[in-house]
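Re: that backbone. Tokens:
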């Protein structure tokens, strides 16, 4: 009897897939079940109840937006109950990771373990910009989940989401990593989400996204779905980001972010060609703030950042997140390309508020004001030579004095000024205030910019 070699190879290949392929994927070589892994980690997933006292309209508006709070007969409730999930990450200290929006503004926080025990949690700290919060309970016989390296994730990796959706405790769903590095979604200030099709629903916020070995790779945070239903697009904060925030919350009780003082953008294929680059990896510097750590370290507009602190930079969002989770006064090591030549620089991050205050102290009257020399023949005012205000930074001294974009400055401290140089000269000699006469629309007004905030 003749044997078809191709058929035989197909049969052998199918047998290998059915018996061995998943042995290296699922824990313990079990190709049919995640149960052995889940039995170990499920006790580490907790239910969180946060009682939020509604004290003002702002809190009410935020709850309506974030949590879909609905009012009955327009009656404003005294309290709101926020529910979510959490992950025990340290059994000795009783640390629990969750989302900041789950416990923000909470008057009291109750943790319910999988065995039914209840504990009042202490809020160690939270960071709204990354949406990470750290809680602590005093309890014995706890189970924790180890943190895995989320940078090792790849699109297509199997993942498991665990939480308490709609009050259904210990709910497990599974799927794959659909995408990595999701940003510009408008969910958080700092965004570098893991996207997954593992179903995530209301109440899953703060729950765990695990790899198949049972390691924590993400914290379930948001879904993209109409009518608050699940359509297979969920987002989780990477565990590496959560750990960075957690470490600062443990040590300092808060996250104090430093600033480098640069603007960056992605490198498109057109920009790569213009800069004579071989690919689009990295991020190009478009702006260097005066007196900033970037300026002091020697960074220049047009530099291509390719690595920060050993982390590869693929796009502008990588720069934002890497610098955004570095603490004030910490040093950053930067590898870049300048005119296609490799360069290495270091910079010490500064407090953005201190940088602003320092720059404003050097130019108290015109700090935060963008200006342009201006000439116009007006039927109302005749020939105008002055300085047009292009923009005014919010909360600057000029902004507080009601200087507005579109205003045309014609005099300063009763001296006629026709260009920026003349205006800066008068401002530099002013002591406590600067009196401006500006044309605004068909009329004109006097404004006083003071060194001190009103």
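Recovered sequence:
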């Amino acid at each position: 009897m003749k044997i078809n070699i191709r058929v035989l190879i197909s049969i052998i290949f199918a047998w290998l897939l059915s018996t061995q392929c998943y042995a290296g994927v699922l824990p313990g070589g079990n190709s049919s079940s995640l149960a052995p892994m889940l039995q170990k980690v499920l006790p580490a997933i907790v239910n969180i109840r946060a009682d939020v006292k509604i004290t003002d309209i702002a809190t009410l508006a935020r709850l309506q937006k974030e949590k879909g709070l609905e009012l009955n007969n327009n009656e404003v409730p005294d309290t709101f109950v926020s529910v979510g999930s959490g992950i025990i990450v340290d059994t000795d200290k009783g640390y629990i990771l969750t989302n900041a929006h789950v416990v923000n503004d909470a008057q009291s926080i109750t943790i319910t373990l999988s065995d039914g025990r209840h504990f009042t949690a202490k809020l160690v700290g939270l960071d709204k910009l990354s949406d990470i919060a750290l809680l602590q309970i005093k309890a014995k016989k706890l189970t924790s989940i180890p943190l895995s390296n989320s940078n090792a994730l790849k699109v297509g990796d199997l993942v498991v989401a665990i939480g308490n959706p709609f009050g259904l405790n210990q709910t497990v769903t599974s799927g794959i990593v659909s995408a990595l590095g999701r940003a510009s979604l408008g969910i958080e200030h700092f965004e570098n989400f893991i996207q997954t099709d593992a179903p995530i629903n209301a109440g899953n916020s703060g729950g765990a996204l695990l790899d198949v070995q049972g390691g924590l790779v993400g914290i379930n945070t948001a879904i993209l779905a109409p009518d608050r239903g699940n359509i297979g697009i969920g987002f989780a904060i990477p565990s590496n980001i959560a750990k960075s925030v957690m470490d600062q919350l443990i040590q300092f009780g808060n996250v104090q972010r430093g600033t480098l003082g640069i603007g960056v953008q992605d490198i498109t294929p057109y920009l790569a060609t213009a800069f004579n680059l071989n690919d689009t990896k990295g991020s190009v510097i478009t702006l260097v703030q005066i007196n900033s750590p970037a300026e002091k370290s020697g960074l220049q507009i047009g530099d291509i950042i390719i690595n920060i602190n050993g982390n590869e930079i693929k796009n502008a969002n990588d720069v934002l997140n890497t610098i955004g989770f570095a603490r004030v006064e910490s040093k950053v090591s930067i590898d870049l390309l300048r005119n296609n030549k490799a360069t290495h620089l270091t910079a010490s991050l500064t407090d953005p508020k201190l940088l602003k205050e320092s720059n404003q102290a050097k130019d108290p009257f015109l700090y935060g004001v963008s200006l342009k020399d201006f000439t116009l023949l007006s039927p109302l005012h005749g020939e105008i030579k002055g300085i047009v205000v292009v923009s005014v930074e919010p909360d600057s001294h000029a902004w507080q004095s009601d200087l507005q974009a579109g205003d045309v400055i014609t005099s300063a401290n009763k001296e006629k000024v026709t260009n920026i140089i003349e205006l800066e000269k008068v401002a530099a000699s002013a002591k406590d205030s600067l009196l401006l006469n500006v044309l605004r629309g068909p009329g004109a007004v006097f404004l006083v910019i003071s060194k001190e905030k009103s």
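Residues 11-24 have pLDDT under 50 and may be disordered. The chain has three domains: 35-255, 262-353, 363-450.
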